[in-house]
Specification:
Blueprint: E1 3-5, H1 7-11, E2 24-26, E3 33-37, E4 42-46, E5 56-58, H2 67-71, E6 83-87, E7 100-104, E8 108-113, E9 126-130, E10 134-139, E11 142-149, E12 159-163, E13 171-177, E14 189-192
Antiparallel strand pairs: 1-5, 2-3, 3-4, 6-7, 7-8, 8-13, 9-10, 10-11, 11-14, 12-13
Amino acid sequence: MRTKIRSSCLRRGLPMIALTLSSAVAFTSQSCKLAISPQHHSLRASGNGDKNGATASIDVSDLGLTMADLEKTIPIHNFSIESSGYQSTSRIPDVNDDGCFWVENPEDIDVTLRIPGLRGQPAECLGVLFSTTTVSVTAFGRVVWSCIQMGISDTDDCLFLTQEGADGVPVIQLNIKKRDTEERWGGFILQIGEDSIL
């Protein structure tokens, strides 16, 4: 596959090209628009900042695409979109301990909690209570930390595992099953619970 782009288009410093399977594709800077035509096996670009019309040519003849292929709806179940991030487990707004690491999939969220306030507590004494909107961590049967979730969970399919961690901070691993698998949470902790003593 060969690509040829005029230098006038490169000098413009286009920051990013977002290419999707549709008959017309737009990308940022200078209001440039790309149109793909599988019959002619070419990709044409034009922008209102270039009177000559910057062009790019890509040979796609080996792909065997037709316009009907580009207009098909792509089923969402053919994709597995995963996102992840860190959140603080502290109730104090100015403290960011990154004690919560979450990985979100379409069906569930895997959460790893390392709560600094549990340092020195044996992993065997910890437990987790699940509700549709909250998670509570117990130590010797007493709730010591809780949070409100970003979404609604299916408590029948929620699991937890505790184990000893580095520096004496136990590790709590959660698997939270979503009730609505089409909903994206974008995180795990919405708010730390008022009953948290850590």
